[in-house]
Amino acid sequence: DADVTQTPRNRITKTGKRIMLECSQTKGHDRMYWYRQDPGLGLRLIYYSFDVKDINKGEISDGYSVSRQAQAKFSLSLESAIPNQTALYFCATSEATVGQPQHFGDGTRLSIL
Amino acid sequence: AQSVTQPDIHITVSEGASLELRCNYSYGATPYLFWYVQSPGQGLQLLLKYFSGDTLVQGIKGFEAEFKRSQSSFNLRKPSVHWSDAAEYFCAVGSRMFSGGYNKLIFGAGTRLAVHP
Question: Which residues, given as ranges, of chain B have pLDDT below 70?
């Protein structure tokens, strides 16, 4: 089984709908992250969480919200989806030590019509 | 501010040829450096990382990278490319200081590698 699991893997929805992307991990890491990937832009950080009680905005958090339900679960929500939120979304985890790499899920491809 | 530049958007090589993917970074001190690979439909997989010490680091799948402080570069190399290496490659820079309380990674825009038989 994958260490970082994202659901769903693909989602097509309509403008204005509320969408939740889920991430769960079995690595035992405290830190979790949500990124979006757009062609030619690399990965940009949306939100990150140190632990269940500590959630922080990344560089592109507008239009998104998150919930850290447990150490192992971190969900990303789009309250009212818009077409420019069409992207590939990744969840990642890392140990709470400077310099440790981040470990990624397989991504959710989200299309908003 | 930290930044990462991958000058080549697309690279095509023949199977068996050598490969070098370029990465240049901007950072005020010695950063942590990573290379990740993304195969179609997959997440990012860590190829290798540089923290300190030997500036030539070995990774998985036969890849290596060399940290050159004077050139602010961390280029990825492989002596003989296999068809299965076709993927997108991302260079990332991490701060040795927690920035805003977390270990921030800045990613380059990626280099897409195609391999001809």
Answer: 95-103
